[in-house]
Amino acid sequence: MGILSGYRVLDCSIAMAGPFAAQRLGDLGADVVKVEPVTGEWQRDRAAGGATGKQINSSFLSLNRNKRSLAVDLKSDDGKAVLLELVKTADVFLQNYRPGVAKRLGVDYATLKTINPKLIYISMSGYGEDGPYARLPGQDLLLQAMSGAMLSTGRAGDPPQPAGQYLADAVTAYSAFEGALAALLHRERTGEGQLVEVNMLDAVITIQMQELSVFTQGLKPQTRSAEPHAHCYIRAPYGVFATKDGYLALAFANLATLGELIDEPAFAAMDDERDSWTHRDEIFARTRARLTDKTTGEWLELFRAHDIWAGPVYGYDDVVADPQVAHNGTFVEYDHPTEGRVKAPGFPIRFAATPSAVTRGAPLVGEHSREILVEAGFDEAAIARMIDGGAVRQH
Prior knowledge:
Elements: E1 8-12, H1 17-27, E2 31-36, H2 58-63, E3 67-72, H3 77-87, E4 92-95, H4 101-105, H5 109-115, E5 120-125, H6 140-147, H7 167-190, E6 194-199, H8 200-206, H9 209-216, E7 238-242, E8 247-251, H10 255-262, H11 275-278, H12 280-291, H13 296-305, E9 310-312, H14 316-321, H15 323-328, E10 331-336, E11 340-345, H16 369-376, H17 380-389, E12 392-393
Parallel strand pairs: 1-2, 1-4, 2-3, 4-5, 5-6
Antiparallel strand pairs: 3-12, 7-8, 8-9, 10-11
Helix pairs in contact: 1-7, 6-8, 7-8
């Protein structure tokens, strides 16, 4: 019984940002009904990273646990009637259709609030519901590029560097998750539902709160250095450096202490707050030249003993095997009826009284259609007619 037990979410989203937001609500105990076409959401058939799975690929599996699947044809009268019936008792409706699609389908906020005035309606988009870019494709890499973030790291003159994660999708998902929780809290206080709009462009820009404020308020230009500095607004040394046997990350160490430890006398006369900015490339290059003298483990032991901020550079095999990760219970494991034993990242928020749990894995297409329709009040004859007619799919 999670903290959101008793709330129902209608998840009409696709791809990553929407399903991830809905999954977070499901992880907290909400009854999330994934409303998908009778053919299944398109991402079921996309082999992300080449991982196809048995009946459910790894990408879909990772974004749709703790949900039930209702497979309906929203372009049919019966399919639309099913969804509108469910809206009557839903708490949250979440969609990330392109602007205008929800209205064409008759599931826009203006329509649904007449059916359920207390409904929290989460509308997610790439660039906003209107404006000059409203109809452009809201894809993660494109939004990262437009956000300015790619030019805050790496070498001057090198191509802009995107994140190694679906950063725009992930932060948009968490923004929608946060918006849904806040709107539910408002409704608990006032009884009032509302429309909540989240777009990827605003989400990925606003996580750069510090960097963009330094630019807009501090009037400091976004200037990349000649060396591969990890952040254009943080003093040297700050980045990833090769060692004798691998790599380590080093974050703005005291120059005098660092110079002594790595046998770099030039650092002794440097001022942390002045020279670490004006001699950024020199400091990076001198540090890089010295760190190949020892292994990563040797440097980490030495640096940690002298309060120098440094850490290992992990691959995913290291992450999964890390003792702190194991101690935290960062990954969860559960059995899936078609995919077998599943291991995946779990829950970043811990509630002492209402802990999150995996109560069901990602559903098969239409796996729960019949039980959801029964709960909504449809009789067996109507359900059989809709399944036979193709408006509803039951696995």
